[in-house]
Each structure stands twice: as structure tokens, then as C-alpha cells.
């Protein structure tokens, strides 16, 4: 009996759990999710179910689109109530699984008297609940953005817009919240400007960063409202940035300067043939210029390569519209 006990102690000493944790993360980086899932499952057993290991196991399940399974793993241990990252991942899984009522319930349970994450840990290295001031702005904004997505999926655009605004004010760099408001047409042109003016950029950025942020966000606002107004020149380092070039092309498009717009979009697509922001502008410009052959070739290529993408069928529709 004593010899068996010694052997057991020896075998436990040999197993280095940290090594397997690093292995899981390296497989995730390599997009080998099955291997990551396999070893993450073993790490949870080896560590006796430590919260951080459960989180990474759920993360592997999420990456493999096993959303219900990942949400169940976290919620069955009550980790969505004790750790902020587990809370975020559980809601994200429920949203992807279209379990919207459950996602909203988890979000609501984590908010008491208007304070997010009461008595939750922000780090897996400590079991001490964090105070509100210890929550990082990007973590707060990410959860608020997620709440907005849940409301939007439930067709409650008013509450969704409020959550996106809160997310953006919490972290002015939360571009996805900004994009949701602008791309989903949730605000009028005036409301967009008011939002931009209300952002606490001066508190979260130094002067140069604030100017850059304003320039980049202004380039995404309703271009057709005043297309003749040119954007201020970007910093030299961003002069060749493709997103900035697409914003300029859109201004030219809404100003009916289709030739200049086409020149810019063609240059962008030479460098990035599938730039998701450039393709809609480029296709619309080809329609205006009646470039049927180019439109046919582009639509054909997009349908062949990306039949699941809406932009491919938009190109097809535009081609048949022109002919």
C-alpha cells in the first residue's frame, strides 16, 4: 500500500499542468481546435476544475461552435456569477446559440443597482472579488456591447443603441459598438455628431490620439450628408491605410465623382482584393460607370469564392441591373 502511494505521488509530481496549459494556448494560436479541446479537457481534470482551466475549455468549445456545450460548462459551475471573463463567454455562447432570453437573464443577474459585475473576480489569479474601479474599461464596454447585440437580436433597437452608446463611452476605442450604431443606421446624422462630441476621448487619450480617433470616426459617419466636405488629412503614417482610402472613395462616390472613386477603389483592391469595406463602394461605382465586363468578372469571382457572402450576390444583382 505504501509503495502504491509513493508511485501515485511520483506520477503527480511528474505531470506539469502549466506545460499543458501552454500547449492548449499554442494549439488555439495554430487553429488546431480539436487538439486544444482534447488537452484543455485533461487540464481541467488535472487542476481539479480551476476556473481559468474551465474558461479555456469553454473557449475551445466556442471556437468549435459548440455554443450550448460551452455555456452549460460555465453555468453548471456557476462561474458566470464569479468571474467576469466566464460571464462574458457564457453570454457570448448563448447569443451565438440564439438563446436570447437566457443570455439577457445572465446579463441582468450580473447587474445590481446599476453596477456591473458586483462581487466578481476579474483575474483567475485571485479569488478576491474586484471593486468597480478594478474593472478594465474594455471589459466593461465589451459586456455592454454584447448586451446591445442581444437587444438588437431581439429587435429592441432602442435599448440596443443605448447599450452601444454606453459601451463606446466606457471605452472610446470599442469600434464594434461604433460600427453597430453607424452601419446599422441606428442614429440620424445629427445624433451621430452629438455622439462623437459626447465621447470622453480627452480623458482616455492624449491629444494626438484624440485627433486620430476623431478623424477615423468622422470618416465613417454619414458621408452622403455633406459629401463635398473633404476629410482632414490623416497622419503621414496612415496616408496609405486602406480604410482611410475607402473613406475618401465613399466621399467621392456620394459627390458623384465616380471616376475618382473608381481610381481609389481599384488601387485598394489591387492591394486587398477582398476588402469588405471597399467592395460595396467599388461595385456601386462600376454600376454608375456602366462597366459591365468588369462587373461580370467581379461578380463571377465572388460567387465562386464566397457564395455564402451577401456581397457576392449584390454584385450579381448589380450586373443584371446594368444589362
UniProtKB/TrEMBL annotation:
It comes from the Eukaryota. The keyword Repeat applies. GO terms for biological process: anaphase-promoting complex-dependent catabolic process; cell division; positive regulation of mitotic metaphase/anaphase transition; protein ubiquitination. GO terms for cellular component: anaphase-promoting complex; cytoplasm. InterPro entries: TPR-like_helical_dom_sf (IPR011990). Keywords: Cell cycle, Cell division, Mitosis, Repeat, TPR repeat, Ubl conjugation pathway. PANTHER family: CELL DIVISION CYCLE 16,23,27, CELL DIVISION CYCLE PROTEIN 16 HOMOLOG. This is Cell division cycle protein 16-like protein.
